[in-house]
Fold these 2 entries.
Entry 1:
Amino acid sequence: MYAQMVKSTGQGVTPREEMTPEEQAFQDRIDADEKIEPKDWMPEGYRKTLIRQISQHAHSEIVGQLPEGNWITRAPTLERKAILLAKVQDEAGHGLYLYCAAETLGISRDQMYEQLHSGKAKYSSIFNYPTLTWADMGAVGWLVDGAAIMNQVPLQRTSFGPYSRAMIRICKEESFHQRQGYDIMMKMAFGTEAQKRMAQDALNRFWYPSLMMFGPSDKDSVHSAQSMAWKIKINTNDELRQKFVDQTVPQAEYLGLTIPDPDLKWNEESGHYDFTQPDWNEFFEVLKGNGPCNKERLGARVMAWEEGAWFREGLSAHAEKAAARRAAVAAE
Amino acid sequence: MPSLPDMATPDAAARAQEQAAGQTARPEDTAPEMRAALFEGLLRLGDNTLILGHRVSEWCGHAPVLEEDIALANTALDMIGQTQLWLGLAGEVEGQGRSADDLAYLRDVWDMRNLLLVERPNGDFGATLMRQFLFDAWHLPMLKALMRSSDQRIADIAEKASKEVSYHLERSTDLVVRLGDGTRESHARMQAALDDIWPYTGEMFIGDGHDAHLAEAGIMPTPESLRTEWDAYVDAVLREATLKRPEGDFAHKGGRQGTHTEHLGFILAEMQWLQRAYPGAKW
Amino acid sequence: MSSEWPLWEVFIRGQHGLNHRHVGSLHAPDAEMAINNARDVYTRRNEGVSIWVVKADDITASSPSDKGPLFEPSNSKVYRHPTFYDIPDEVGKM
C-alpha cells in the first residue's frame, strides 16, 4: 500500500443524528456509490484526509522511481533496460496523475513538493530500503508492485472522482509491472547458482518490508473507520495483507524459493496462511527517518528540485516573453 | 504452376524470398572489405544511440520537473530501441553469431564506435539538452539520407527511427530556444554548455575509408555531406535562442575509430558489469 | 521568480472519428509546451491521434448547485429517447 497510516482529521465516524443536513446528504451520496467531484460540497475532514492520502501516494510514486532507477544503467540486456526504464517512467506518470488529482482539492503541486522536501509529508516506507542486486528488480516488481496493486485495485472504486479516475488509469498501466518482476524472478530462480542465491536473498530482504507496506493493523483505528465510511479506504490493512500473503506463497513455491518465515503455514480452518507479523518497531523507525536509505532518497529529490529551479524559471520567463511579443504584434 | 526453386536448402529459400521482395544481393555477400565497412558503419550508428541512450537514462527520476522526466525517458527508450535494430543488423552482417546484446555488453572501449559527443557527461539539465540538440540536428538528416540507402534493411530501420528522431529534434530545438531566450541565468548556462561541447561536434562530419566505401555503394552518406544542412539548421536555432555560435572549428575526434575519452570506460564498467561478472547467465 | 507553471487540462482524440476526451492534466509554461508534454505524458501507449490543451483557469464550469436546474429539465424530456416509443415487433427494426 502506498499510503500508510493516513490520519483522518476527525475523531471517528460522526453518528448520523449528529451530522448537519449537508453532511447527511454527502454521506447519502457516498452510500449510494455516487462519485464526489471537486466542486461539490464536502466536509473539510474529507478534503484534508484526501489531500494527505493522495499526496502521500503521489510522493511514493516519485520517490519510488529511485530504488529501481538505480539499476537502469546496469540492466543486463537492452530489452531489460528498456522495460525497466519504461516502468520507472510509468511511475513518474502515476505520480503526475495523482498530484493532479490532489490539485483539484485546492493544493498546488509545489506545495506538496514542499511538504515532501521538508519531511512533513511521508511516502511509503518500502522505498527506504536499498536495491542491492539485479534480483531486487524482480522482487520489487513481484512483491512491492504486487502489494501496491492489491491496494490500488479496490481504490478504483473510491468515492472521489479524480482519485478514482487516476487509479483506473494507473491500474491499467501497471498491469505489466508485477508480471515483468515475476519474469525476472523466474529467470533468476531457474538460472545459475549465483542467480538463485540472488533471488533468495532478494526475497529474504523484501518480504517483511513488503508486508509493512499495508501499514499496522487498523481494525481498531478510528481514522480508518472514518476513511472507510467515506470510501477513500476500501479494505482494512489486515485484510489486504492476508490477501497478499495468500497470493504470494504459491508464487514463491513455484519459483522454488523459501519465504523467510519459519512459522508460515496453511490454516485449513481459516482457509488462509498463518504468518509472522513484520517487526513494527523497524517500521516506525523507518517512518521516523531511520531506514537504510531515507537520507539518500529525500536528498535525491531535493537536489533534483533545487538544481532544476533555473530550468523551470527559464521556461517561465520565455513563455512570458513570447506572450508579450504576440500581444505586441496583435496590438499593431 | 510456375517452377519453384529448390526450397529444401535454406539458402535457396532465402534467395527466393529476397527476389520476391525485389531486394538486391546483400553488400556483405560481395566483398570482404565491403562487409567490414558495413559492419563498422552499423556499429557507429548503434553505438551512438547505445551510449547516448545510456546517458539520457541517467536522468530518470532526477529531472527538474516531472513532465520533463517522462519526456526524456521517451527519448532514451527510442534510442535503446534503435540500438537493438542497428546492432542486431551489425551482428547479422558480421556473420559470427553475435547478437545486439553481445555487441552492446561484451565489447571493450577500443571496439566501440560512437562519437565522442555522446559519451560526454550529462552536466546540468541544459548541457544534456544542448548535447541532445546538436546530436539530433545531425541524426535526423543522417537518417533521412539512410532512408535512401541501397541496402533495404538499413532504409527500413532509418524510416522507423526517423519518425522518432523528428520528434526528438523538435523537442530539443524548442527547449534550446526557450532556455537560450529565457532568464539571464538560463541563457548563461546554455551558452556555457554550447561552448563546452562545441569541439565535440566536428567529428560528426569527418569521414574515413569505411565511409568512402559505403558512400560509393550508395549504402550510407559521407559524413561531410551532412554538414551544410546541420550548419544551417543549428545556426538558425542558435540565433532564435539568442546564443552565439562558438568561433573555433577545432574538432576532437577518434571515437568513430575506437579512440575514446576517459568517460566511456566508466560507462561500460557500469553498463556491462552484470554480463561481465556472470558470464553466460541468462537474464 | 518561482511561480509554478500553470495547470492545463488535456483532451485526446483516441481514434479518427471519435470525440476528444478529457484524459487528465499537467503543468507547462505555455500551450505549445503543454501539447508536447501531453504527448509524452498521456500517449505513452499510442493512445491518441489529436491533442487539445486548455488552461485549467480558462474553463468555466457549471456550479454543482446548478446540477438540478441544468440537467433535470432534459431528464423529463423522455420523448427524446428512442425507448420512449413502442413500435410493434412486426414493423421490424427501426
Entry 2:
Amino acid sequence: MARKILTEHINVPGIETFDVYRKQGGYTAVEKAIKTMTPEEVVEEAKKSGVRGRGGAGFPMGMKWGFLAKPEGVPRYLVCNADESEPGTFKDHHLMKSIPHLLIEGMIISSFALGANKSFIYVRGELMYVIRILEKAIAEAKAQGFLGKNILGSGYDLELVVQPGGGAYICGEETALLESLEGKRGNPRNKPPFPAVKGLYQSPTVVNNVESISNMPWIINNGGDAYAQIGIGRSTGTKLISASGHIQKPGVYEIELGVSVEEFLNSDEYCGGIRKGHHLKALVAGGSSVPILPANLITKTAAGEDRLMTYESLSDGGFATGTMLGSGGFIVFDETACIVRNTWNFSRFYHHESCGQCSPCREGTGWMEKVLHRIEHGHGSMHDIDLLVDISKKIEGNTICPLGDAAAWPVASAIRHFRDEFVWHITNPQEATAPGAVYMGDMALV
Amino acid sequence: MEEVKPQLLKITFDGIEVEVEPGTTIMQAARKIAEADESQGHLVPPAMCYYKPLPVSGGKCRACLVKVSAGSAKDPRPMPKLVPSCITQVQDGMVVENTTNQAVLDTRKSIVEFLLINHPLDCPICDQAGECHLQDFAFEHGSVKTRYEEERRTFDKIDIGPYVQLHMTRCILCYRCVYTADQITDKRVHGVMNRGDASEISTYIEKAIDNDFSGNVIDVCPVGALTDKTFRFKNRVWFSKPEDAHRDCDKCCGKTTVWYRGDEVIRVTARKNTWGEVTDFICNTCRFEKKQTSDWVLEGPTKVKRSSVISANKYRKDLVAKPDFALKLAASQFKQIDDSRPYVTDEETIRHQSIENNDKANHRSLAANNN
C-alpha cells in the first residue's frame, strides 16, 4: 500500500467531527506550529517540502509564500481556492466533504506562517452542502480554541470565513477569485501586480489550492524533509487524482508522485483497468484543459521511457508528445469514445465559461465551439481543421488569464493526435453522424 | 533650491530610443515618440479599450500586444509572452518590438479577426463610420476576407435614457463606457451582465442613466454601440464640418467641437486629442440641447488628422499605391478590368483589394476558385 498523507483517516467513521479528528492526531500540527515555531520556520518547512501547487499550475507553494510582500501596517490575506470546477477534477470536493478539519488545520498553520489574521475559503457555489460542513467544522474548531482570538494562548488571532462562489469556472483563476471575493464581477485582473503584492482589497494575498494547504499539517508534524523524501525529483509528496471515464473503478485516489501511468491505470489498487472488453484509446491526464494524448503516448514517452505520474514525466516531450499533470483530473476514453464529440464538449464548456473580458478568448472560444459543432454534426469542410488549429494558436498566450490557453490546448492537441478522426468526420458525414458511430481507424484491427 | 528630477528611463521602441519618466507605460512611450515626430505615428500600437483619461481601462482588447525582447538593463531576458503595451510599465533598458516583429503583426491581424467575427459590419448605416476606431484598426491591420461562416450574435437595440441608444450587436466590450459611468457617478447603473460572448453592456434592466454627464459614454465608445439619438441617421461624419467652440457653462468646461452641415449644427461632441481621447467631459445640456450657432462662441476649424476621412474625404493616399508583387501579378495573371463598364463586380473588388494589401494567401484561394 502506498503512503497516504491526505486520505489516511478519511474512512474513519465520524472523521468530519472535531473529536474523532482530534483522536486521530488532528490539530497537533497547529499546536506544534503555534507553540514551538515562528512563522518563518513554518515557511521554511513548506519550502523544504517542495510541495507544488495542486490547483493545476504546479508552482512551488513555499516559493509562492516567499514572494508575499510584507509592508508595515497593511493586512495580509490567505485565500483558499476551493472553486474546483475543471471538468474531470473532483478531488477537493471529496477532501472537504469527508475530512473538513484537515483543510481547517492547514489553513490555521498557513495563515500563521503568512501572518494573516483573516483568511478565506472560497468554495464553488454549487457545493452548498460542503459549505455547511465546513462552517460546522469551523464552529467546532472555534469552540475548542483553535480559531478566533488568542489561539492556544499564543496571542495569534485568526478568523476563517467561508465564501460561496456564484458558480463560475473563471473564479477559480486567482485574480478573478479575488475580484469575486471583493463582491465584484469575477473578471481576472491584469498581472502585474501579482496577488502577492496587491491582491484582496489591494493587500498582499496568497491564494492556494485546498489540496496544497491540506498537506501542511503533515509537513509540520513530520518535517518538510520527510515530505520531500516522497515522490521523485521535483515532484514531491502525494497527489489526489480524480479518475473518471471508461475505467473499472472511477474515484479519487491518493498516489505517491512517481507511480507509473500504466500502474495507476491498470492496478487494482487504483483504477482497475479499462472496462471489460474494451481498450484504451485516449487519455486526459490533468483535467479537461491539458492536452489529450493517444494510448501509445500516455504509457510511454516519445523516447520510449515509462511515463510516470509526475509533473516532469507527464510534460516530457512538450506539447508535441506530452501533456501536463494539471489538477489531476484523469479522464480515460476507450475506443467507443468519439474524440471530435469530446473536443466539442470541452470547447463548449470553455465557450460557456469565458468571462468575455479580452477579445481572443471571448470570440475565439465561441468560434471554435461553433466550428467543432459543425464538424461533429456532419457539416464540416477540410479547411475547418486548419482553421481550428489557427484559432487555437491565436488564442494561446494572448489572453489575460490562462482560460484562453485552457480552451486552446484540448482542441490543438486533439487535432494533433487524432487528425484522421476529424478528417473521417468531414469526409463521411453520414456515417459519422449516425447514432453511436465512432471512428475506429487502426483501432479496428486491434 | 534645485528641484529633484526623477531618474528618466531609457527604452528602445522599434529601434527608436526614448527617455520617459518612471511609471510610464510602453504605449505612452510610443505616443511620446510619435508626438515628437509625426512621421512615426504608425509605430504607436492601436488601442481599442485603453483610454488614458479612464485610469483603470486597458489590457482587455489585446490589440496593443507588443514583444518585449529585453525586459530591462538589469535583466535583459525577453518576456515569454506578448505583453499589452497599454498597461505594461517600462523598465530602464527595455527593448520593445512592435511593427518590426512579425509575430506581433500576425497577432494583431488575428485580434482584428476576433473583434470582427461578431461585429455586424453595418458600417454603411452606422453613425460611427468615419470616426470608428474599429474601422481604422481593421483597415490598417485586418484581412479583406473573413473565415467566419457561423451566425453572428445579435442583440436588440436598447434606449438608455432619452439621448443615448445602445446597439449591443456592435459592441466590442472595451468597458470604456462602464469606467466612464464609474467616474461620473457613485450609483452605477451601467455595468456588464452575462459572460463570454453573451455578455452585454447593461444599465440593469434598461434603467435610464440619470446623470448630467451620461452623454460622454457616446464619445468614449470606440464603435457605434452607443450613439447619440439626436444625431442618429442625420449625416455621415465626413460630410460634416467640425469647429472648435465654447460656451459659458455652469456644469462643465463648455469646450466642445460643434459639427456643422451647411449652417446647421447637427451635433456637439467633446474635444478629442490626437489619439481619439476626450480630454474634458462635457455635460448633456451642451451636448444635446445647444444646437444653435448663437449658443456657441466659435474658435475655428478643428484640427483633424490627415489620415482621417473627415479631413480628406477619403482614405490615405500612400496606402493606395500598389506594391511590386501586386503589379507583377496584375500584369501577368489578371485580365484588365473593363473600364468602359459603369460598375465593378464584388469579386473584382476583392481581388484588387487582396492585391493591394499584399494578401497573397487570399489571392491564392481566389485563383484556385477560378481554375
